[in-house]
Amino acid sequence: MEVRQLDLFLRVAELGSINRAAQTLQLSQPALSRQIALLEQDMGALLFNRTQGGVLLTDAGRLLSERARPLLKQFNLLKQQVGEQAAGQLAIGMPPAWRQRVACPFIEAIAAQLPGVKLRVCEGLSNELQDDMAAGLLDLGIVPFSATPAHRHTQTALLREPVVVVGRASDLLTPDKPVPLTDLDGRPLVLPERPNVLRVQLEQAMARRSFDCRVAVETDAVDICLDMARRGVALSVVPASALSGIAGDESFSWAPLRAQQVTWALWENQARAHSEAVVEGRRLLLGHIGSLIRRKQWWKAELLVDLKA
Length: 309
Prior knowledge:
Helices cover 40% and strands 24% of the residues. By secondary structure, the chain is of the alpha/beta class. Strands 3, 4, 5, 6, 7, 8, 9, 10 and 11 form a 9-stranded mixed sheet that branches. Strands 1-2 form a two-stranded antiparallel ribbon. Strand 7 (189-191), helix 7 and strand 8 (215-218) form a beta-alpha-beta unit. The two termini are 39 Å apart.
């Protein structure tokens, strides 16, 4: 059971509505509902009765509400007293496209250089990671740049990379010949589910040109996106970072999508900015990303942060 889940539970109990609580907490309603469901699972009891007008506490929910408030006060005091213990923990979220290029080398670097740090790595799509950041479950998160970052978080524009179209070898896509949006008009595509940022960006770009964005397959798994492209089921549209998963595989072909890029940002939980594990983890992460781009091991990626600052 996460302490944050108790905080979320008490806010829902106070407002009598998951929707209203989600708005005040700057969370999506599905994300808040998921946290409440996880708490109910951990407690082994239904905490709310759902009604058309909102939610009502069950007997078990009322008991938890009465007992949780003094416990949370004690916990917050204890947290202040032993805050240095938390310096040895780091929770970070990254997109699936970054698994081979960044996530796995980062885990190896932490294990080798910071063996005393307890590391938790979460892989998820942009909307999922943003929800987890807003819920206080992550210290660092890599998500597309947002005009409205989560409350209590700082955001640093990190890098910009091309969006690429991936198909089978017979599609004859080549890196030196960008694909115009018109070539995707009415073509079957395999894309992540909405509200994934890349999916929304592509749909909006095609809608502005009155093109048909035909989604044949929806999947949140980058590996499936690429495999469906290789099998010729549909073209896949992914960040260039996902290409590390098919390097040297001649059954694929790919090309940049003309005038389409994604800007990644590093989100940081201000409440954990003092932690030595977070500070050192951030240093290792930025150092690895900078090294990849300087050595031109990340196709056409452009670094947006001054690593010397």
